[in-house]
Design brief:
single chain; alpha+beta; Small Protein B, Chain: A; seven-stranded antiparallel sheet; two-stranded antiparallel sheet; 4 helices; 9 strands
């Protein structure tokens, strides 16, 4: 399954400890737009407010720009669909200082799903270490190719 959107910065900025899958509440034209690949989740995050999870900071561009509703906001918060047990578990983890970030969006049996990662923010030294690992792996691949 080909992902609709991938958040590459999330894997660089966060150490992902666990992953969850959530559905998204969308209107019809938003779902069509996502399936065309007009979805951006970089820089977005998930918050839990009054027992419900919301995706904040994601952008869904209009399906047809001239035919979009007058009050359409591409960056509005969108409700995420999670099981009650998962939500209660996540609330406890978020209070412990972890962050919930979207990793990628994909299609599962006709529905748009978002893979969420529960992670801890990396420090600057950890990010440098990740860059060093990536560069050494590239050099090794060049030697073998």
């Amino acid at each position: 399954m080909e992902p609709y959107a991938v958040n590459k910065k999330a894997l660089f900025n966060y150490e992902i400890l666990e992953t969850f899958v959530a559905g998204v509440v969308l209107s019809g034209h938003e779902a069509k737009s996502i399936k065309l690949g007009r979805f951006d989740i970089s820089g977005s995050h998930v918050i839990v407010r009054s027992g419900e999870a919301y995706l904040v900071g994601a952008t869904i561009h209009p399906f047809q720009v001239k035919n979009a509703p007058d009050n359409y906001d591409p960056t509005r918060s969108r409700k995420l669909l999670l099981k009650r047990e998962e939500l209660d578990y996540l609330v406890g983890k978020l209070q412990a200082g972890l962050t919930l970030v979207p990793l990628k969006s994909y299609n599962m049996r006709g529905f748009v799903k978002i893979e969420l990662g529960l992670g801890r923010g990396k420090k600057k030294a950890d990010k440098r270490e990740t860059i060093k690992k990536r560069e050494t792996e590239r050099e090794i691949q060049r030697e073998f190719s």
